[in-house]
Amino acid sequence: MNLQAASKDQLSAWEQELSAAYRTAQGKKLNLDLTRGKPSAEQLSLANALDGILNGDYSANGVDVRNYGGLDGLPEVRKLGAEIMDVPVENVLAGGNSSLTLMHQTVLVAAYFGLQGEASAWHNKGTMKFLCPVPGYDRHFSVCEHMGIEMVTAPMTATGPDMDQVEKMIAEDANIVGMWCVPKYSNPTGVVYSDDTVQRIAKLAKIAGEGFRVFWDNAYAVHDLVDEPVALASIHEASIAAGTEDSVIQFASTSKITFAGAGVAFMAASESNLKGIKHALSFMTIGPDKVNQLRHVKFFSENGALQAHMKKHAAIIKPRFASVLDHLQAAFGDSELGKWESPEGGYFISFDTLPGLAKDVVRMAGEAGVKLTPAGATFPYGKDPQDSNIRIAPTVPTVEQVDAAMEIFVLCVKLASVRQALAK
Amino acid sequence: MNLQAASKDQLSAWEQELSAAYRTAQGKKLNLDLTRGKPSAEQLSLANALDGILNGDYSANGVDVRNYGGLDGLPEVRKLGAEIMDVPVENVLAGGNSSLTLMHQTVLVAAYFGLQGEASAWHNKGTMKFLCPVPGYDRHFSVCEHMGIEMVTAPMTATGPDMDQVEKMIAEDANIVGMWCVPKYSNPTGVVYSDDTVQRIAKLAKIAGEGFRVFWDNAYAVHDLVDEPVALASIHEASIAAGTEDSVIQFASTSKITFAGAGVAFMAASESNLKGIKHALSFMTIGPDKVNQLRHVKFFSENGALQAHMKKHAAIIKPRFASVLDHLQAAFGDSELGKWESPEGGYFISFDTLPGLAKDVVRMAGEAGVKLTPAGATFPYGKDPQDSNIRIAPTVPTVEQVDAAMEIFVLCVKLASVRQALAK
Question: What is the ipTM of this complex?
Answer without folding.
Answer: 0.97
